[in-house]
Amino acid sequence: MRFPIKGSVSGWNLDNLKAVRRVVVSVIGATVLLIGVALLVLPGPAFLVIPAGLAILATEYAWARRWLRKARQVATDVVSGRERSAPGDAFSSTDRGEDQKRAAECPEQETHEPR
Question: Is residue 95, in this structure, part of any structural domain at all?
Fold first, then answer.
């Protein structure tokens, strides 16, 4: 007995399967992420659904991995009780605390009034 599905799938190459997988992951991940964003204003666990959508998208996209890493860092900081000096620190690409180190090394400059 011959299976008709096996014959149609055998014509697909690996590149086609990767493209189909990427599309499926993109659709599912984007849907979960959009539901999470909607839950920011609707009642529901937005702060659980958004990282889940990012985790799905992170299987295929580097930008989603970066956002997920930043979201994990923010969540870790919130849980541990660490405070941030400015809201932009969570998404800054520079090393944290570098500005504070520089400020400690350089004494305050005296201000001179013009004569």
Answer: no
- Vertex 62, ends 58 and 63: CA angle to 5°? 90
Angle between helices 46-58 and 14-38 (to 10 degrees): 170
Residue 103 one-letter amino acid: A
Residue 71, in any domain of the structure:
yes
Give the length of the chain. Answer: 115
pLDDT tens across 15-42, in order? 788 889 999 999 999 999 999 999 999 9
Residue 59 DSSP symbol: T
Amino acid at 14: L
At 72-90, the pLDDT tens digits run 898 888 888 876 655 555 5
